[in-house]
Amino acid sequence: MNYKSWTAIAVLAAAPIAAFADADEDALVVNGEIEMITQAAAPDHLSDVMDEVYSGWRFRSDETQALQMDDFDNPAMIFVDQAMEKWDTAEGTAGKSCADCHGDAEESMAGVRVVYPKWNESAGEVRTLAMQINDCRENQMGAEKWKYTGGSMAAMEALISVQSRGMPVNVATNGPAQSTWEAGKELYYTRTGQLELSCANCHEDNYGNMIRADHLSQGQINGFPVYRLKNTKLNTAHARFKGCVRDTRAETYSPGSPEFIALELYVASRGNGLSVEAPSVRN
Amino acid sequence: MKLKQLKALTLATAFAATGSVAGAAGPKEVQFDEYGAVAASLTGAAGDAANGAIVVGSKSQGNCVACHVVSALADVPFQGEVGPVLDGAGGRWSEAELRGLVANAKMTFDGTVMPAFYKVDGFIRPGDGYTGKAPTEALPPILSAQEIEDVVAFLMTLTEE
Q: Cβ-count burial of A126 within 10 angstroms (0-12 exposed, 13-18 middle, 19+ buried)?
């Protein structure tokens, strides 16, 4: 539809347009075999604010959606292959590779992404996947840490996540992780910057609506890391958070900061029940 | 020229243009009535509706179309739907109400997502525009007094639903 007729419809039907512009009804089956849950009953902790949660995939155009339906078309898969090579490459003073400790990623990493970020008992902290990867690099391999949102990190996250594709996200919000989860929730509802907008203002109050050229989704992270057509690389959740906070004309938090770790746990928990879709494709 | 310098300059010329600062109100001096309306022009002078249309439609200025459809600006692509369609706003609201809405819509609609365009403090983690960094100087309002008056003058022309 061209822009003019779209406006005409918007003007004629200001009320119904929200329904028409909501998550679409498409079903996501990857490679003709992995059935993704892109719509689920909202987790209990969200029952006061929404009935259902949707994957960001449901808000993208048919063309963008198609790229995620087959691994041959998914541009993110190149990075998964690159990470597979790293998985098998010895690095650092210990002369070890990921494979030396974890064997075949397909087996050892299945189900891992589903529960991250999660509480690490011996470290006494909530750990994101990126933190765990860097902990292995530093303390098991004696290798340099990777940049939190850098290409190597994003690719390794994608390799680990892809082993859980189709499994429903299930991060723990209670127990020792609870205070971190609460801190993340607080951030999610804090209106930052000169525009005074919170994550909830866009992704809870206005998902389904257009904000300028963007069709607002629920801001779920079950598809992260995502390949964006806009910058032709894999993007981590913290890089996306940073961009969204910046867009409120705010001073952002840093990727890997305690604030973004807490926010990641909270945002992940808003997607409990949706399939892990990573690496997904977005515009 | 950096945006901030530009803004400062626009503010300065806005004041210069009105001849005197008397009758003009800085962001901290605006008088809202109990319903959020602002009776007096922020510059002490009338706005320019043609420039107001540019401010409303352009991404780097008001970017009002990010959230609102304005049919009169049919050549501006990608108008959003976060807020109500602004067609007819000039009939629904008085000039004073529109000035209040643009200066700080939170005084009219408690808790609204619409940003305040003439406000310089009271923010959580304000940034230097869209850089993501902390500001190094006092924040200018998003729109100058003159720009707000121009936007109000433009909105007053939107009388057709």
A: buried
